[in-house]
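does this look right to u?? zinc ion version
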Amino acid sequence: MYIYRARVFDTPTNPFTGGQLRSETDIALVVDDGKIIARTDIGTATTAHPDAEVIDLRDGILIPGLIDTHVHYPQIRAIGHLGKPLLEWLNECALPEEEKLVDDAYARNVADEFLTGLIGSGTTSAMVFGAHFASAVDILFARAAELGLRMTTGLVTSDRNLPEPLLTTVDRSLSESQQLIDRWHGQSRLRYAVTPRFSLSAGPELLAAGGQLVRDNPGISVTSHLNENHDEIAGVAQVHPQAQDYLDTYDKAGLLDRNTILAHNVHPNDRELARMAETGAAAAHCPTSNSALASGFFPLRRHIEAGVKVALGTDVGAGNGFSMFKEGVQAYFMQQLDPNGGQPLTSAHLLHLATKAGAQALDLDDKVGDLSEGKRFDAVLVRPTTGQPLDVGITNAADDEDALAKLFAMGTPADIAGVWIDGQPVK
Ligand SMILES: [Zn+2]
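got this back:
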């Protein structure tokens, strides 16, 4: 049993609906077998648990583990290509790299690089877009199990409009996916997600096969892309002439429910937003990717007004790194600049989007997302080097919201001094 004595920031209540930052200068989190069993003052904690080891973290700021709701495993080596729109970027930068994961030795290296990047940035839970090769997905699951990451991922499926090595068939996608589900779903902190790449590269029969997997395996998740780019949306309409819009391609296949996360949704219509709210499907907002590919301004206000769940994703490798702090501040910038009138965001909104909202999108908020009594101890210690600009900013902050704003403005993976998942230190 451990008592973590720390300055703690989290957002158990939603700032978009009147909640605010919860901040404590000196609080004790009593952690037993990975679970926070008490959140109290240090005197009460040590009196109640005299044998527990006290770990003093007050030289930093402890926040909940960060939650990345959209990040591509095979694309770590594709980060940083600039100046291309989505479909050109896919063809020239991302897909040639994804084809290389057919080689297990290559996939093993990429899996290690990917998980190092993710955990090193303080991400403790993630919805990971897998690979097109079952063996490469198996490798990722195995490494994530060893490292303890709370990860949901799956086999990416496509049957058209991609290079031939990345294509599959309905039968093959069903058998390979089911084998991965049987092997990994529910093991360690791992869960499976049905992952059609997007409706531009997955026809109605292949999407329907995903819906069959969801029906056959209650509790598995779904992830894909939605409404990222105008050319993509026009292409989807050609592949799915019977669907009334992009979202409907997934809906017709039985892929929409509260375990569904759809990335981007930069250009939704009102019907799609209403239907996402009705089904509980979440949008993963990926602001550095939207900026890099010039996909557009994410209509955050419309999502919130429609009651759609929104969380943040890095979208590595169109997004340019694993830092959820960078995604947070980029979301803030884009809402500031949106010519249609963005949603003003405070630092509490950014922390909520990067933690609690991600837990809700992943349907994990009974376990993680904030540091309340009863939650698992997934946490990140931010402790910048003394004298560096982030340290100066936090030291001289007007109040805790201001200190948190500095953290999002200037925080990098180098400032993360500790990461715990289920009470286990992983960095
Ligand atoms: Zn993506």
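The longest helix spans residues 104-120. idk if thats expected tbh
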